[in-house]
Design brief:
Helix content is 53%, strand content 5%. By secondary structure, the chain is mainly alpha-helical.
């Protein structure tokens, strides 16, 4: 949910792109107002979230903070390489080695990735009972099945309209 691709990284373009998330989140919960957001440290990203969600606190991503400050830890090359390797592996897994194809294909791939992130259960192997099964359940407070894939299919079939009923 809430993913859009933009051709520019300006305040205006990023506000419009992140506005897709805002619109979809508020359509599910009109009182939705995040307290924090983890960002890449770009001023335009921070400005976009501040414009969309007044009062939000921006937190610098660990990796981006590491990249900005890695020169302070000179001599810690092995630690730096381990952190960067974890980042590279995560990037390959989640971003599909960058954007491929045309704009529409890239946006569809990103939206598909977002659906998976929003519906796959949170740490189900930890045996910790949680009030919500996944981020989508937390946002919409709706869980149609014990099976996460059935929840994804049911929610996706409503085409973003929470007022539709599932039989």
């Amino acid at each position: 949910m809430g993913v859009a691709l933009t051709d520019q990284a300006s305040d205006k373009s990023l506000t419009e792109a992140y506005g897709v998330f805002q619109k979809e989140a508020i359509s599910l919960d009109p009182s939705y107002k995040p307290k924090t957001v983890n960002t890449d440290g770009w001023l335009s990203t921070q400005n976009a979230f501040a414009a969309l969600f007044p009062g939000i606190v921006t937190i610098l991503c660990f990796l981006h903070g590491f990249l900005k400050d890695r020169n302070r830890g000179r001599g810690e090359h092995e630690l730096h390489e381990r952190i960067l390797e974890i980042y590279r592996m995560t990037r390959l897994m989640y971003s599909g080695r960058g954007l491929h194809g045309n704009h529409t294909a890239s946006e569809r791939r990103l939206r598909g990735w977002a659906l998976m992130v929003n519906f796959v259960p949170d740490a189900h192997r930890s045996n910790v009972q949680r009030a919500h099964r996944c981020p989508a359940h937390q946002l919409s407070n709706k869980c149609y099945s014990e099976n996460w894939l059935e929840n994804l299919l049911g929610s996706a079939s409503m085409n973003g309209k929470p007022e539709l009923k599932i039989r």
